[in-house]
Amino acid sequence: MKKIVLSQDDKQPRVLQSVRQITSLPLEKIAHLEQFEKGETIIAFNSQTEILYVLLEGTAKIYFIHEDGKRSIIHFVKPGEMIGELGLFGTEDYTKDVIAQTSCICLAISLSTHKEALLNDVTFLQEMNKYLVEKLLNRTERFSEGLNYPLVNRLAAFILYTEHEGIYHEKHTEVAEYLNVSYRHLLYTFEQLQEAGYIKKEKPTYRIIDRQALESLAKDIHS
């Protein structure tokens, strides 16, 4: 992890533009940037974190760790989403595993230093309420879509949601569990997409060949 002081980062006007509205407090005084490489841990499972993150660039995965050590993906974090926000309100004592899926840049705010100021900032609380409601609605819609859409549609949406520069690179075992389907059913559906010419297998990845066709299949499905 690389820590970057905001005032010394030439990229800050661009990367901060989308998050300045989350608080009336000056970000340059309460926050810094943290850069994570692909595969690096942003927050470790079962740890007590004192940092609120906002993902600015890249993507990350959130894993739940079962008692037997097995990991299950429960969410893919995209730019604009928060990491560790539940700890701010004391509703999550111990965290889940958050791993950088690609190179990531996060806005980081120390809760041990600025928690009280944030909880007294009306702008921040309004933005947080809006964010949590939207997060709940998205999770509800994703659950509903899992019951009503065929796997081929949901997989197309998932590929588009997780691809990076036209390349899809996720483990079948984790994806089957995330989409709540059998491993065999998932492989069969990948074969369907390959035969249709929408994707091409390039071990150990898949390359998107016909993005427009995948988008047509994906409809407005949330992943």
TrEMBL record:
It holds the Pfam family HTH_Crp_2. The keyword Transcription regulation applies. InterPro entries: cNMP-bd_dom, cNMP-bd_dom_sf, Env_Response_Regulators, HTH_CRP, RmlC-like_jellyroll, WH_DNA-bd_sf. Residues 15-135 form the Cyclic nucleotide-binding domain. It comes from the Bacteria. One of its GO terms (cellular component) is cytosol. Residues 149-212 form the HTH crp-type domain. Keywords: DNA-binding, Transcription, Transcription regulation. Coiled coil: none annotated. One of its GO terms (molecular function) is DNA binding. This is Cyclic nucleotide-binding domain-containing protein. It comes from Vagococcus fessus. The lineage of its organism: Bacteria, Bacillati, Bacillota, Bacilli, Lactobacillales.
